User: Fold this.
Amino acid sequence: MSTTIAPPAARHGIPPGLRAARRTATAATGESAIARWILIGIALAYLFLFLGLPLFVVFEEALKKGVGAYFTALRDAELLHALRLTLLVAGIAVPLNVVFGISAAWAITKGKVRGHALLVALADLPLAVSPVIAGLTFMLLFGMQGWFGPWLRAHDIQIAFTVTAVVLATIFVTLPFVARELIPLMEEQGVTEEEAAVTLGASGWQMFRRVTLPNIRWGLLYGVVLCNARAMGEFGAVSVVSGRIRGQTTTLPLHIEILYNEYDFTAAFAASSLLAMLAVVTLAAKHLLERSHHAARARLIQEQQEKQP
Amino acid sequence: MSVALERVSKRFGEFVALDEVTFGVDEGELVALVGPSGSGKSTLLRVVAGLERQDAGAVRIHGEDAAPLGPGDRRIGFVFQHYALFRHMTVFENVAFGLRVRPRRERPSGSEITSAVKDLLQLVELDALSARYPSELSGGQQQRVALARALAVQPRVLLLDEPFGALDARVRKQLRQWLRQLHDEVRVTTILVTHDSEEACEVADRVAVMHEGRIAQIGTAADLLRETANPFLGAFLADSPRPSASAKRIDYH
Assistant:
């Protein structure tokens, strides 16, 4: 049984031939209405259980003792410091990884660099390694007893248990996100548009800014969103290298755990709600950017169609 | 001599793409390079454009050694098989690109660019579609945009790399007649790469047949059809207009 529910657009204003074509296309996918509803139901239940419910619980717990208690918790100096540190770390790690990601993707896909398979594998390393191990590796390198320990001590430089260590660990963990978004995209697009730009007299920078960058901007945006989310939410590696010095090297996720371990649930969930809101703002910004682009595009096409009889 | 190659060689690893090719194109001439895939014709074009560097030999454009010049400084126009239009730009912006990226001192004003682009789009009969994006055009239309874009920089030499290869037979035929007319109008020195010998003979003033990195023979279409001494040439030129079928039927050894 294959009933077809044609969307309103299919019932009105579409030539009969097209309508028939549409019907066969739908029928060809073959699933029945019941199967469709079951699938949709499963997907929705899953989303609610694993995404909707936790998000709801965060805000519910945060507001349990009233709005007043919520805002008092948010005004805590250590929490605000953790928030500022999280934004600072993301603010350094994300731009650096954007530069790295674009350079690496360029070298791998367009620059015909030797041994690029190795470069791809290396760029994936942070995803394969547990963040805690990454953090421990950093301690082995930059800790006072580590490889660079004597040199660092001789030059009076402290890296372990400082904001610098937090930034370095975050850069390491978030390194693959932008590159991984861009490599397949740039691979698919090839080099002919760049070659065309060069034969038309564009300099290297003009070629990049006017041709390459516009072509990768949506992939880049997505990579930035993922990279940023991970940078702000990173726990394992940062937990190891920061030494968790309250009010100094604790980022928001670390601070939340500390509060939670101290049974200060209102504050813990208030801080969590802050982190959740940062994530929502990031996603909303991405969505708005995309939508305004598509709207502008649609407007342009409509204007053209109005111009032409 | 508008373009001159002197003993130009190029290899990719073990593969010899160009084997001491010496070859010249006169001012205003339209020369077709024809040959099966792997014969080196596209490599030759890319070496002239500066997109590939030759391993040995010299390329001269209007008598000037092109070696120190990058692709952007050679004043060439390049048209790619798959158009290579900038997908995020309108037709108008695609054609304007070469003018907009000029150094500030040489860059025409906005109104000059607008009128130059309008003229070019009229020339390729696409002025009605200037606000469209490449994805909204047919293959033939896209290739005409690519041609207008290449002509916008007023090239000394126009290089066409299988420009009609991705189009269906009917459009291909129309476009090559149109290209011949356009060349009679604009008279810019042109090298056309194709694997369709019929296309080469119909469009070009002279045809150069390439085989295994060398120019096997060069002459007018009539000359070449008369001399079929070389069995390879005979096979290639006597061939049917279907390029894909022709490439297969040739016996290389």
About this structure: Confidence is low (pLDDT under 50) at residues 240-253 of chain B. Chain B is about 35% helix and 25% strand.
